[in-house]
Design goal:
With about 60 residues, this protein is mostly helical. It has one domain. About 85% of the residues lie in helices and about 0% in strands. It is flat and about 45 Å long. It starts with 5 loop residues before the first helix and ends with a helix. The mean pLDDT is about 75.
């Protein structure tokens, strides 16, 4: 279990920073290309991530 020290602060900071970066990139793509373009990018990336997790478990 994490104590309320630097480890927990780093976990919260990295989660917030990662979400902000993801949201910013998606908003920029939607503004530049449209929502269909973003959907076509997210599906293959999610698929490769899922397949990578399944391979790692074995």
């Amino acid at each position: 279990m994490l104590s309320l020290d630097i480890e927990l602060i780093f976990v919260v900071y990295s989660a917030l920073f990662g979400n902000m970066v993801t949201f910013s990139v998606q908003a920029w793509y939607i503004w530049r290309k449209g929502p269909i373009f973003v959907a076509t990018l997210l599906l293959p990336s999610w698929g490769s991530f899922s397949l990578g997790m399944m391979v790692k478990k074995e």
